[in-house]
Design goal:
It contains eleven helices and 15 strands. The chain is an alpha/beta fold and 367 residues long. The strands form four sheets. The chain has a seven-stranded mixed sheet, sandwiched between helices. A three-stranded antiparallel sheet has the order 7-6-13, with no helix packed on it. Helix 8 (233-264) crosses helix 11. The chain is globular, with a radius of gyration of 21 Å. Bound molecules: pyridoxal-5'-phosphate.
Length: 367
């Protein structure tokens, strides 16, 4: 690594002294995990920050999704309508629950599931919808809820990209039956590794608790079959410290994204996603779409930037439905728009601490 390289992301970290000071009490208590004091404190603070009624911390975002789906108690073999334009975790969580993903196309304007194509995929086997607020672009939550109510389906949002966002003034975790967040090191807010499930049914907390803690309810009592999905105290403290600074992190990202937006808007062949005015964004990602009018193909632009030490990412290519483990195994609509998007999308570097001068360097090459 020389000093000139620019990576697509970099983890936000609190000041060193702040974290070191915060973990000191652990050397007195020796209480390192198993729903300790800081686990509780982070749950309480996140409930408030995310503006959600209930929240359960998890060891990572993937287990949050897997266990949220499991806690719904859906019949094995049931079909789940979902998007292929996402991180592989979304599809894995469905399949690892013994459910069948049914892939729905996405919308060209923002990459979220195309709600107009959901009803056509519903059969007597459909049990749930798992949409993704991809890049923090918020799905059509009203229409998805209307469909779910009409057919009696559960809705579990993969909100891994949507930390701290709100829609029409309401925390994004308030939609559907549950929403999951990822606090992975590369996300807008991190606990090193971590995640959470947000929901409103208070009974759901206990079901998730049993799943994440082996079903243990007493020294000699195991009530159900569970796994280990607990967040440890070091991670919880990292979260508490990062939460103190998350607004600054988002503001930094906002300034970078606005610079990109302002300068790329008129560039022929570069298309940007639409942002709903009702959404308070977190500026987690800056995806662009490389259209035919652009002098280079997406892969050529990717290589050109890489040649200059700028590492962008082809998020999300290939579609999860096209990965070796899922290809041709599940039904779905012709994923025309999703396939087109996967071919054209490129995520540009955005992170807290990235200097504006580096953005200008990237912009000069792209333009
Ligand atoms: C990051 C991510 C996950 C998984 O979260 P981890 O914390 O890495 O386990 C799930 N879905 C999406 C869309 C993600 O980006």
């Amino acid at each position: 690594m020389n000093g000139d390289e620019i990576f697509v992301t970099r983890s936000s970290m609190p000041p060193y002294e702040e974290y070191i000071e915060a973990i000191k009490p652990l050397w007195d208590s020796h209480w390192l995990t198993n729903m300790g004091r800081y686990h509780q404190e982070l749950e309480d603070r996140l409930k408030e920050y995310l503006d959600v009624p209930e929240l359960s911390l998890m060891v990572n975002g993937h287990m949050a999704l897997e266990m949220a789906i499991q806690a719904m108690g859906l019949p094995k073999g049931g079909e789940v309508i979902t998007t292929p334009f996402t991180f592989i975790s979304t599809t894995h969580a469905i399949v690892r629950n013994g459910l069948k993903p049914v892939f729905c196309d996405v919308k060209p304007e923002d990459g979220t599931i195309d709600e107009r194509k959901i009803e056509g995929l519903i059969t007597e086997h459909t049990v749930a919808i798992v949409p993704v607020h991809v890049y923090g672009n918020v799905c059509n939550v009203e229409e998805i809820q209307r469909i779910a109510d009409k057919y009696g389906l559960k809705v579990i949002y993969d909100a891994a990209h949507a930390f701290g966002e709100s829609y029409e003034g309401k925390g994004i975790g308030n939609y559907g039956d549950a929403s999951i967040f990822s606090f992975h090191a590369t996300k807008v807010f991190n606990t090193i590794e971590g995640g959470a499930v947000a929901f409103s049914d208070p009974g759901f907390y206990e079901r998730l608790f049993n799943l994440k803690n082996f079903g243990i309810r007493g020294e000699e009592l195991v009530v159900s079959v569970g796994a280990n999905g607990k967040m440890n105290e070091f991670c919880a403290i990292m979260g508490l410290c990062n939460l103190n600074h998350v607004e600054e992190a988002i503001a930094w990202r906002k300034a970078l994204c606005e610079e990109y937006e302002g300068q790329l808007k008129g560039v022929p062949g570069i298309r940007l996603f639409e942002n709903k005015p009702e959404v308070k964004r977190n500026y987690g990602y800056f995806p662009i779409l490389v259209e035919d009018e652009y002098p280079l193909k997406r892969d050529e632009l990717y290589e050109k930037l890489k040649g200059q030490g700028i590492y962008t990412r082809k998020y999300f290519y290939p579609l999860t439905s096209d990965q070796a483990c899922f290809k041709n195994r599940y039904r779905g609509v012709r994923l025309e728009c999703a396939r087109e998007m996967a071919k054209r999308v490129l995520v540009l570097p955005v992170y807290e601490g990235l200097e504006m001068g580096k953005i200008e360097r990237i912009l000069k090459i792209v333009k």
